[in-house]
Amino acid sequence: MKKSLLVSFLVLAPFVLALPVGSVFAATPGFGNLYYNGTMVHTVIPPAAFPNTGIDNFYEVHGGAAGQLGIASVAPGADGYHGGHWKVFTVTFNQDATPVLLTSQAAVFAAQSGGTVTVTRNASADFLCPVQI
Length: 133
Fold this sequence. Notes:
By secondary structure, the protein is α+β, with helices and mostly antiparallel strands. It is built from three helices and eight strands. The chain has one domain.
């Protein structure tokens, strides 16, 4: 028994010591919601950002209608889903526009085409956040 505990410790210790302490223990994961194709889905928010590494589009809406959440372009089961490695875009309602609830990437594109919102890439805000459907 003691030998197996010692072996386990010796095997795991290098991995534990290699973890970046600041980012792993700085915060605890949280849980939240976002929109995907008009439906609210659940998320698990990790304690660290991953700047400049996003793959799948994520829209962070500013000045939106009541109940506005972030918007994922893909989710588990969809072609091109990469486990929640989000490429962040900031969506801001233009000054003269009336905010509406945006619940999909298509709605963001339509609002952008209609001149209602401005969409800006924010690579420093890229993050990892798995989606649960």
